[in-house]
Amino acid sequence: MRGHVAGASLLELKEMKHTLSMQQYSILLCVSLTASVGDTFLSHGMSQVGQVDLEHLGLLIHALANGWVIAGIVLLIGFFASYMTALSWADLTFVMPATAFGYVVVALLSRFWLHEHLSLSRCAGIVMIVCAVGFVANGPSRTEHHHELDVMDSGVGR
Amino acid sequence: MGGGLSTAAVTPLSVAWTCIAGVAALAISGECLIAAAMRSLGDLDVIRERSGLAGAIRAVLSSPMFLVGALCMAFNFFAMLFTLSIVDLSLAAPATASLTYVGNAVAAKLFLKENVDQRRWLAALFVCAGVYLLSK
Fold this sequence. Notes:
The complex is a heterodimer. By secondary structure, chain A is mainly alpha-helical. Chain A is 72% helix and 4% strand. Chain A has one domain (20-139). Chain A has a two-stranded antiparallel sheet with strand order 1-2. In chain A, helix 2 packs antiparallel against helix 4 (67-89) and helix 5 (92-112) packs antiparallel against helix 6. Chain B is mainly α. Chain B contains 5 helices and no strands. Chain B has helices at residues 13-41, 44-61, 64-86, 89-110, 118-135. The longest helix of chain B has 29 residues, at 13-41. Chain B is globular, with a radius of gyration of 18 Å. The mean pLDDT of chain B is 85.
């Protein structure tokens, strides 16, 4: 087994790898969609619940009875599950831009579904987030640390 | 009770930004702890194939780091609800998102020892700028 460890030590401390399957890309899509739509539902629900201040913190519990807040929570649970799955095979800094891509989806939905006006600055914002996702998506998805390579090696040797 | 007034009109800027910074700090702590827990567990898809969905959930819930991270995210959720009730969404959403993206990149570099190369820094900055432009 020491041979495996010695072999691993020849590798760089932070080796990068980039092999995502279609299923993994679909999980990243889930991450981006559920977060943005869930936040929108929560925002709508909280606007119905009203202003919460320090004297009326109980309203936060009351908010849990609002349908939009409940729908938002369900979507955010879906987000949490897909987000954790993504983090188990990709770096945090790789998954982060996927969550930002949800803003682009919401902006495009509001333009083509709700027929809202899409200003020049919003178009520029969409382009910038798409560029950010492109930068990261073209790169490696995960940093392999030394001890992880050792564990992989010991697993193979068993 | 909801009223038609803009919430930002009645909330001092210092209070608004303290709330926003608090929400971002909780999100960064929670996400880093959960990312570290998931990394130590390994690929969840593989665990699910081997031990089923119940096994995967058991593996996640047995990680103390995950539980502390989830607690941070729960506090983040209620802090965000509180913030949304006193700060306009048009300020709260992009400000917390931008602070969280940059903070996560710094925390991932420092604590998770991720290889945050030039491409990822650029992506974090582009996302911040993009979120700001979308909120205008």
